[in-house]
Amino acid sequence: MSAADHTIQENEIVDITIIGGGPTGLFAAFYCGMRDATCKIIDSLRELGGQLATLYPEKFIYDVGGFPKIRARQLVEQLKEQAFQYHPQVFLNERVEQLNRREDGVIELVTDKRLHLTRAVIICAGIGAFSPRPLPGEGVERFMDNGIYAFIDNLERFRGKRILVVGGGDTAVDFALMLVDVAESVTLIHRRDQFRAHEESVKQLYESSVDVRTFVELHAVDGGDRLEQATLIHNKTKETFTIPVDAIVSGLGFSASLGPIADWGLEIVNNEIVVNTRMETNIPGVYAAGDIVTYPGKVKLIATGFGEAPTAVNNAKTYIDPKARLSPGHSSNRKE
Q1: Cβ proximity of 243 and 249 under 8 Å
Q2: How many alpha carbons fall within 13 Å on the CB side of residue 258?
Q3: Where are the domains of the chain?
Q4: Which residue in 279, 164, 180, 181 sits closest to 230, CA to CA?
Q5: Maximum Cα–Cα distance for the chain, whole Å?
Q6: Are 306 and 23 in contact (CB under 8 A)?
Q7: Which is the most buried residue in 8, 16, 286, 291, by most CB within 10 A?
Q8: Hey, do 3-130+255-333 and 134-252 end up sharing a CATH topology, with the first three levels equal?
Q9: Can you tell me the distance from the alpha carbon of 225 to that of 252, in angstroms, rounded to the nearest whole number?
Q10: DSSP secondary structure string, 277-301?
Q11: Which fold would CATH assign to domain 134-252?
């Protein structure tokens, strides 16, 4: 019986359990099916897709092969369609709290809801648990989620409005470029004149109608029942000035925490799990892939995670079954 035809029973020991249902986790689940390995996905969020689904569904993704650009929500839907060919069992809104390796080699994953048993684990938890970095400025708390937002989950909310975007990294620049076609106006402020975003994105920013103001920071916000204006300060001249705004979007990014993962005995450097070229961690049977891992030369891109996922799955397959081939051949050789 193939993985595609297998229905996982309660308390069954599955071949591979994936912690994290973002792009890397979903592609890993697909590849488990390609290797005829039974699979579970466990994610603490309420929906699959990780940050793409939760924070940036309207954002265009540019670094995936075969797509000149694709909206995050569309990429997630296609990844789900791809993975669900093999019917992985999915557990959402469930947080893995403990990882224990038994003497017989079976790994116990204890969540806040139940116990999962698995022969191997692939951790694809992205940046871990994330929370938006606080937006500075007097009066900000009063308008949080009511005029001031940490992410864009619905572009229509901003249609025809005067928007202020704060920040100079990929998040801020991407937000500004997303909003420029729906908002009445978009102003982006950054405390420096050097941007951390991709060079091509910064080029697009300056070629767009976005009003880019550097060396400028948010000083205060004000309004009645709704947000009405923002007071900005030039951090070199100390001059303050006020602009009318209907909404502010923080592009300051997110703070990440590994949460319980940090207590599992994994080798961790700078909040990232250390792996080798086989995506192995220091715990036998436990692999990791995607933004959560580190190794010499690591580049954090979705495309990188798509390469690391099958590397982890193939090596997990040979860990589970030493007689299995590490390289199964190309997917183009797969018989329908």
Answers
A1: no
A2: 20
A3: 3-130+255-333, 134-252
A4: 164
A5: 71
A6: yes
A7: 16
A8: yes
A9: 25
A10: TT-B-SSTTEEE-STTEE-TT----
A11: FAD/NAD(P)-binding domain (3.50.50)
Report the distance separating Cα 9 and Cα 160, nearest Å.
Answer: 51
3-state secondary structure of 185: strand
Residue with tokens 């648990």: 129
Cα separation, 93 vs 102, whole angstroms:
26
For residue range 270-284, list pLDDT tens digits in order: 999 999 999 999 999
Nearest to 302 by CA among 26, 48, 32: 26
> pLDDT-based confidence at 51, cuts 50/70/90?
confident
Query: CA-to-CA distance for 229 and 25, rounded, in angstroms?
Result: 42
Asked if the 3-130+255-333 domain carries CATH number 3.40.720.10, the reply is no
Q: Are 303 and 292 in contact (CB under 8 A)?
A: no
Contacts of 221 (CB under 8 A, 6+ apart): 137, 138, 139, 140, 142, 143, 147, 148, 227, 229, 230, 231, 245, 248
Q: What is the DSSP string of 75-110?
A: HHHHHHHHHGGG--EEE-S--EEEEEE-TTSPEEEE
Residue whose entry in the numeric block shows the structure tokens 């390995």: 37
Nearest-CA neighbor of 195 among 184, 210, 181?
Answer: 210
| Both tokens assigned to 208 | 């767009």
Query: What are the φ and ψ backbone dihedral angles of 287, each rounded to 5 degrees?
Result: -120, 165
Tokens of 7: 């229905």
Burial of 200 by CB count in 10 Å (0-12 exposed, 13-18 middle, 19+ buried)?
A: exposed
- How far is C-alpha 296 from the geometric centre of its chain's CA atoms? 21
Six-digit token string for 80: 């789900």
Query: Which of 113-122, 152-161, 286-295 has the weakest average pLDDT?
Result: 152-161
Strands 268-269 and 247-250: unpaired
pLDDT in tens, 213-269: 999 999 999 999 999 999 999 999 999 999 999 999 999 987 777 889 999 999 999
